[in-house]
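Appendix B, record 7
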Amino acid sequence: MRSVPLRAFGLFMGGVMKAISKWAFVAASLFAASTVLGQTSAMNVLIGNSTANDAQAAINVRFAELLTKHSNGRFAASSRTGGSLGTNSQMLSTLQAGALPGMIIPTGFMASAVPEIGMFDLPFLLPGAPAKMTEFTLRSKAAARMREIAEQRGIHVIGFYGIGSQSLLTRFPVTKLADIQGKLLRVIPSPPRAGAYKDWGAVPRTMDLAEVYSALQQGTIVGIENPPDVIYKMKLYEVAKYFTRTEHSAFVMAIVVSKKWRDALPKDLQEVVNKAGKDAITYADEINTKAQADALAAMRKDSSITVADMPAAEIQKMKDLNREGIWKSMKNDPQRGAIVKLLEEDVANYFK
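Structure tokens (predicted):
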């Protein structure tokens, strides 16, 4: 066979998005076919994510290690952190095409391909501790339905896990809701997140994480939302000194693989992929719990960072605005409404 498919796969590896094509999928299929035909050479498997030097990146590394371990070397899996394979949106498109085997991705970034999964981003939805978020997704009927829909879009979701609650990091003090009104704040491209900020009178701007540091530094944006670990490990506090704990949004991640890639594998390796992902989620609960606590403690000790809690009365204002705003909007949405109603049932059952 001609070498065009491998060349296209190489272009993808260089970050050229034109390689998201039928040739890239052929290359991935050939790797899988070599295993089916009994060849002994290990199958190269890349796993991507957008952050570096934090818990999310460590989980990506662990997932790759587990793929190699559980396959007894039939997979030669390696992680690519820090967005080296592209942005979250680019990687997801490549994964759907079959050219990227797997990735770890915030569920909000999946909203463009699977709008229903973006409903995890509804404000004040989930419990704050990482392990409790993960537990919620395991028991959630809405999460099960999300996985079914994602499968139809070429994305096999192994599972969801929680990173932690998101709060505000800004270039100015925030002691009340009015302080962020009219201010430009970065959000991921998820309708519930953007809608929440509009409810509060702020101006949401979508932006890839790799652009955030310079955008804060230059004043293109004046604030972001993220859990303590992401903020501290990526040193975003260097350009925005005020961390205000609102815990308004849960940061839920998904471990996903390409359905095309997985379907081309032998059944035993399909099970290996699922086992590796589930074991990585168990690891994620352990590392995220510690990472969030450690990062928050480190920020409290750093005299250059101001850490404060948003007053309870202001938090209630935020909740009330969201219930009358983005929650109602999403519940009445023809595509998302059914999932929102399932989530409300899940929450009621979880907190019984």
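Remarks on this record: The first helix runs from residue 4 to 13. The longest strand covers residues 242-258.
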